Amino acid sequence: MSDSLRVIFAGTPEFAAEALAKIMAAGHTVPLVLTQPDRPAGRGMKLQASAVKQLAVQHNIPVAQPLSLRLDGKYPDDAAAAQAAIAEAKADVMVVAAYGLILPQWTLDAPRLGCLNIHASLLPRWRGAAPIHRAIEAGDAQTGVVIMQMDAGLDTGDMLLTDVLDIATDDTTASLHDRLADRGGALVVRALADAQAGQLQPVKQPETGITYAHKIEKSEAAVDWQQPAEAIGRRVRAFNPFPAASAQLGADVIKLWRATVETSAHNKQPGTVLSADEHGVRVACGQGVLCVTELQRAGGKRLSAADFLHGFALTPGQCFEPHVSHKVD
């Protein structure tokens, strides 16, 4: 089709695969996909291709998986091979979504129209690696997607298009991710149409309100019961599906998948079980009460509170460790 562009796509997880699917559905030609190398995953730790690679292979799109794009870095051969593949693709533009590698200047300059990034926050809030998790954890009322013209900084480029999305009180990272992925794919297709028509309108990011969404670490899963229930509840939602908030009761480590927050006053030590029944496991916090409605024992399945309590005795007065010190699997 005459209004299609040649689009190199760089991305790795499901969020990015959604955008790649929409770009192809819009009729654009994708001569090359860049994605992270296959990684061990699952219980068997077998090498697994990224969601983006799997989609590219299904559509017979050439895939490059360099360890780095820095020509002067630790993997110059990888970078040089990627540079050759990018040059051969003769792309109009590169679209980048949750790729996971830093793009050096030569990469940004390679396509005729430069590189467009799909970023899952309302920039400049939550620049960096984990914008969806951090928005929920912080209690933001809104988030969204920005299509950005990439420059050499960390999410510092000019904004081209923005789509605002409300964060629901029961949103998890999983549910919000899916809505943002859908919006991001649709928005980048609009941006490509604007680019084709020469109608991109870059807007500088504000110089105030800048925050950084640092990468989620497994160690953050540990629940600190001395925090307010509201803060713990946000972390439960933010860390679903990874790394999953967890609490320790004796020798048992229990993952907390879903919970509601109660403002009830109590005079118990934080971490004390106030009640445990089919409605949930209510635990005293520094302020208020967290009612956990979906739990999981190590090696077990995610279960509703009612099903969990059939196989695990929890009684009022028992106390979770005030702060988990275990190593999270």
TrEMBL record:
Q: Does the keyword Protein biosynthesis apply?
A: yes
Note the Pfam families from the entry. Formyl_trans_C, Formyl_trans_N
Q: Which reaction does it catalyse?
A: L-methionyl-tRNA(fMet) + (6R)-10-formyltetrahydrofolate = N-formyl-L-methionyl-tRNA(fMet) + (6S)-5,6,7,8-tetrahydrofolate + H(+)
Entry binding sites for (6S)-5,6,7,8-tetrahydrofolate = 121-124
Family under the similarity heading: Belongs to the Fmt family.
Please explain the role this protein plays, according to its UniProt record: Attaches a formyl group to the free amino group of methionyl-tRNA(fMet). The formyl group appears to play a dual role in the initiator identity of N-formylmethionyl-tRNA by promoting its recognition by IF2 and preventing the misappropriation of this tRNA by the elongation apparatus.
Known EC number: 2.1.2.9
Give all residue intervals belonging to the Formyl transferase C-terminal domain: 215-312
Superkingdom assignment: Bacteria
Q: Which InterPro entries match?
A: Fmt (IPR005794), Formyl_trans_C (IPR005793), Formyl_trans_C_sf (IPR037022), Formyl_transf_N (IPR002376), Formyl_transf_N_sf (IPR036477), Formyl_transferase-like_C_sf (IPR011034), Met-tRNA-FMT_C (IPR044135), Met-tRNA-FMT_N (IPR041711)
HAMAP family with a match to the protein in the record: Formyl_trans
A GO MF label: methionyl-tRNA formyltransferase activity
For this UniProt record, the keywords arranged alphabetically read as follows: Protein biosynthesis, Transferase
* Top EC group: transferase
Source organism per entry reads Limnohabitans curvus
Q: What's in the GO CC field?
A: cytosol
Q: Which gene encodes it?
A: fmt
By its UniProt entry, which Gene3D superfamilies does this protein fall under? Answer: Formyl transferase, C-terminal domain, Formyl transferase, N-terminal domain
Q: Which CDD domains match?
A: FMT_core_Met-tRNA-FMT_N (cd08646), Met_tRNA_FMT_C (cd08704)
Q: What is this protein called?
A: Methionyl-tRNA formyltransferase
Question: Which stretches make up the Formyl transferase N-terminal domain?
Answer: 7-192
